[in-house]
Amino acid sequence: MSIYLTGELAKIFSITTRTLQYYDKKGILKPAYFNDNNYRIYTEKEVEKLKLIIVLRNMKFNLKDIDKLMNSEKDMKAIHLLLDQKIKDDEQRIEEEQKKLNNMKNIKSMISETSNSPIQKLLDIEDVMHKNKSISRLYKKLFLIGGLGTFIQLIGISISFAIKSYFPFLISFVLASICAIIMTSKYFNSVLYMCPNCHFKFKPRKLKWMLAAHTPKTRKLNCPNCNEKHHCIETIKNRT
């Protein structure tokens, strides 16, 4: 039967001798016996137990749970229950960590590489991010107005085809244009933009705003404070 000293066993499993000594102290993995020189001696039986401990540790079981599993009559049902709880806990932890990661990415996207704004501007960025959590409400309202205009125009086209007259189409076109104007005005009046370089919040001129290149969250504008052109971050205007 093969026997192993602490150092030999640690080397085989790429762990430290201190880890094996700690497992011994906690009663999780005791040596088979001590030799005449008071060295810990492990046999194949302890090797098998150590393999199981490492598997459980890789699944992030804590030593308390491992001790219960190793030194009792627990079966695979116990593993199933413990894993079920661990999976739930880890999923919740990962979800929270993902939110933090997304938050860091969002903050980073609001700061240009050449920005020399004071660190206190981070509070303004946080304020913008907090407000932008409700920006979907604005988009929903705009979508409803735009959808209404499209619906009116489709009805007008259908009626024009049915009665072979341009008049319903012209009326629907005027009404749809009014909806488009209302939607654009509401959109423009509801938003401000933050420069990612100096973090100054401003309202651009309407024509420049309409013609500016944009993404779903930014619009390429000239900042009136630092006079640099960037994809400025869109945010909800404070209600008065």
UniProtKB/TrEMBL annotation:
<keyword id="KW-0812">Transmembrane</keyword>
<feature type="transmembrane region" description="Helical">
    <location>
        <begin position="142"/>
        <end position="163"/>
    </location>
</feature>
<dbReference type="InterPro" id="IPR047057">
    <property type="entry name" value="MerR_fam"/>
</dbReference>
<dbReference type="InterPro" id="IPR009061">
    <property type="entry name" value="DNA-bd_dom_put_sf"/>
</dbReference>
<keyword id="KW-0238">DNA-binding</keyword>
<feature type="transmembrane region" description="Helical">
    <location>
        <begin position="169"/>
        <end position="195"/>
    </location>
</feature>
<protein>
    <submittedName>
        <fullName>MerR family transcriptional regulator</fullName>
    </submittedName>
</protein>
<keyword id="KW-0472">Membrane</keyword>
<keyword id="KW-0614">Plasmid</keyword>
<dbReference type="InterPro" id="IPR000551">
    <property type="entry name" value="MerR-type_HTH_dom"/>
</dbReference>
<keyword id="KW-0175">Coiled coil</keyword>
<feature type="domain" description="HTH merR-type">
    <location>
        <begin position="1"/>
        <end position="72"/>
    </location>
</feature>
<dbReference type="Pfam" id="PF13411">
    <property type="entry name" value="MerR_1"/>
</dbReference>
<feature type="coiled-coil region">
    <location>
        <begin position="80"/>
        <end position="107"/>
    </location>
</feature>
<keyword id="KW-1133">Transmembrane helix</keyword>
